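Lecture 7, part B: from sequences to assemblies.

Below are the input chains for today's worked example.
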Amino acid sequence: MISYIIGRLLQAVPVLALASIAVFSVLRLIPGDPADIIAGEDATPAEVEVLREQLGLSDPIPVQYVRWIGELARGDLGVSLRTGVPVTELLELSLPPTLELAAASYVIALVIGIPLGTIAGVKPRSLWDWGLSLFTVGTLGVPSFLLGVLLLWLFAVTLGWLPASGRVSPLNDPVDSMRHLALPAIALGTGLAAVLARYTRTTVQAAMGQDYIRTARAKGLKDYQVVVRHALRNSLIPIVTIVALQLGNIMAGAVVIERVFTRPGLGRLVVDAILNRDYIIVQSTLIILVVIFIMVNLAADLAYGLLDPRVRRR
Amino acid sequence: MSVSFPELTYTSRRERLVRESMFWGSLDRLVRNPQGLLGLVILGLLVGAAIFAPLLTWHEPNIQNASARFMPPSLEHPFGTDELRRDLYSRTLFGLRVSLALSLTSVTIGSTIGIMFGFFAGYVGGWVDAVMMRLIDALLAFPGLLSALAIVTILGPSIRNVAIAIAFFSVPSFARLSRAQMLAERNKDYVASAQALGAGPVRIVFRHIAPNAIAPLLTQVALFIASAVSVSAALSFLGLGERAPDASLGGLINTAKSNLQKAWWYPTFPGLALALLLLSLNLLADAVNDAINPFARRRA
Amino acid sequence: MKNDMSIIQGKRTPSRRDFIRGASVAGIGAAAAGLVGCGDDDDAENGGDGSASPTTAATQAPKQGGVLRGAQTADLNMSTGYPFVALAENPFINALPIEPIIQYTDSLTPTLNLAERFEFNTDRSSLVVKLKPGLTFHNGAPVTADDFVFGINLIQKPADFGIKGTFQLSAFANAVKESKVLSATEVQFTFDKPRVNMADFFAQLPVVHKASYEETKTGKAINGTGPFVFKKWTPGQILTFEKNPNWHRKADSGGPYLDGIEVRFFGDQDAMGLAYQSGELDLLLGPPAALAAQNRKLTHVPVKTGLEYMGMNVTHPDLVDARVRKAIFMAVDRPRIIKELGEDFGKVTCQPWPSTSPAFDPKLEDPLYNPAESKKLLAQAGWKQTEPIPFDHRTTAAYVAEASLIQQNLKDIGIETKLIPSDPTAFLAILRDRKFKGLWVTSHAFAHMAPLTNFQQTLPYQQPNMSYYESPTYLDIRAQLEKLDPLSDAAKAQYKRFNEIWVEDPWLVPLQPNTGPQLVSERVRGFGKYLVTPGIAKYWEVWLA
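Predicted structure of the full complex, as structure tokens:
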């Protein structure tokens, strides 16, 4: 057991290292010299040199990399090229809203997706199954920005029930915070719900065909007990993995949803930074994202190992 | 090496094909599955519409010669006209063409590279496998849309660069999946017997392992094509899609959302085309898996 | 045009308006309503009230209080020379917290703002400025001549202040050879030679507190003298202003009435429109045209100060021949751009000059749209094309539509183009580096003051410019105008020459006026009057019902 955990942790290290190298290269892959671009056309060569020193671009690459890793370790994520605001400050402002959005979307996805997928898995080819397909298409077939605009149009403009933009911190006003979260979370969560429902359906359907289900039935357990206690429990493992893997889709979805609903957040920060060529922000937020990802996947892996003893023995 | 069993006679050539050939057998199963059939039909219609777009339309997609802007659907303009007096019917069909071409090519390239990568790593094993997989894990840690966004920003907005970006972020997923499949099949008996018979690794991988491993990979291909269309739509939303005046489905919907109140037809028809495309791909994804599986299992 | 350019000629004659202002400052204590009435008298000549869409309440008394909720799409840029460079991303911070020493309030006659004395010598080679006593910045520091001169020094040598950027006012700033500070509030400027249009410079140059400029660079503080005080900026999210209780023109105008102004940044124009429609916003300076069209009664269109134009690189092999360029000029369907893309908010125009400018030519308000003529010109020039001409544009929806429309116009006369989109940041870099290869669309301002100012300050007219246009006629016109009074008949003759080459040997193709509709919500009152220079709305007259 311990060796499994340690083994997995050790494996994460080279992954982190390689990912950091990949992120590091982003800045240096730009066509042209970043110092030139940032300094502008009217800068004298002397000014460009000064800027290059400032950005540390004149040292050999390995030195630059090591220095950057050192800065990261100290928690120095650099300063925005455009505004001079420290990246840590920007992250403090952007991380909580995105976490709220992700959490709310996951809640919606789990609450809708798991039950829907379970029923469809237990009764394949039934009306529920077709309903699930319809739901999948409805949510996946409509691009999220269109869905967002339609929701806004319906609920904010026409009905006036919910706000059209902005974010309120739950610490300031929990109710208003949820009102601002409702539409974005629905827009992001329904797509996720469809994905979760489909995976749940597949795994539950497979589980239902297993022998232990027949045994459970033979024991006299009622239907829903069979499903929940046995089929669903065994399906949880792949579902946990899928939920962790969907983090990437959440981030991608947040990029669009935060823009459509004008919420502050990580997605918006990264996209604006990429479009503004603010490489320091891009570099630092990417590495944070990547670290989070790897950690979450590691946790899922470990959970997988904990939940399914067979995995550990491999 | 054919032994004949008198009890097992086929009633027709078709039946023999279906029972013995993996390809035709899977196809047969696919068509018998109502979801698979629906998916195939819809996709076929869409691909046909895209290929024959010039023949099926009577206006050019980029010419601004309609009599007015924002005209509702009519016989002359079945899907109406847009803000620059262009025919939306032909723009939708040509946009479908662009979206299909983009997603099919990018995913084909990405999946092929990824599968080669994964099969190689899985077959060879050892430290080569370990290194390659760590690399793949590192790349998988980047959200797809963000990598695509970064690549398109660096290279400039155009369909070609969007395709490159999508191919790029498809590779790691396919590599990981195909490696998993390879690992599952690698230690099975038929591989050992093939090796004992003196077959080389390439032959083993492509002739024996691949057919068994292919089912979930094809499912993944279908799903990735669907997600490629979505990613390119998101890029259009961010202003980094195709070059004007060309249309893509995502681009059309993006412009349409600015004109929702004026022109209900503008998002409706391209949106329907997009939804049908994604629907058919999703249906096929599951159905293909169901169709090939019996054949895969049998050969183990 | 009631246009007393006496100040430019070095004499100062009081105008009726100054008298009124003087009277109220002397302590008559006229009620705010009364002063608003005074302002209305000048409506006819008010340079900024271009559109015929008055706010519904005629002369209600303004209410104090309330926060105006504004929106913009791009984020602020304060690190490349703000406030001494005018950037499109800074509409609110350009307008609310900062002021120049003189203004063109409703005509091109300067009115004194921070200065109480603004006198040129007879040959206009030097200028004496005396600041009003007792003026303070938002942080309480007194306004001194040093602060005033600091801006000029920064524009002349930005590197000395750690700034990298290009400044529209460079030509003007470099004309100032010496700034002699005579006392805490008095400065004497000596120019490199007699300069006819220096008032235009001082009407645009803001005065900010020198000692706290470092904070301005990092977006932490702006210490100007304007009616609203910069409170906070959260990058990418929100920008807030509060009323300046000590505004030096408060007694004068009664305002500002608003408690504050709050500006939110929207990444998506449609999201901004939906927020407006659901009642969350009061002011959109750049609304989507369709939204403005839906709410025509709530829009105001400022008088144009320049053009949205298509630039042409005259060194591109296909564009060298002036006949080809004239053909392109006449091929653009300007009425369609105004009617379809602009939702009929502007007026068709072919010149950068507004009607108040001495260079204005009524004949250039015709559409000059004649594709048949274009085809003839191309035939004359022996038009043959091997490759499509590259055509750069920004990726924002409005520019994409405009570029597509023009592409179709050009195609109709036989010119093939290839559209090249760039996101706004990349586009600006290409613009600044003058690397457009063929055609491009963008816009410019600054054509509403002395025409010579336009030629010196506005990028596409400068020498050198992005079109690499160096016609000897144009260079001669510029040289001549430097010696002539902008209103004189001799100058007008030069303007006539310019307007001729503008069409016969063009390097810029006019598309539409550079100002579009500005949209307010139903509770906004008093919005819709603009200063001529700086070209901002009179936010101190705005109140909420």
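Note for the exam: Residues 1-57 of chain C have pLDDT under 50 and may be disordered. Keep this in mind when comparing with the next example.
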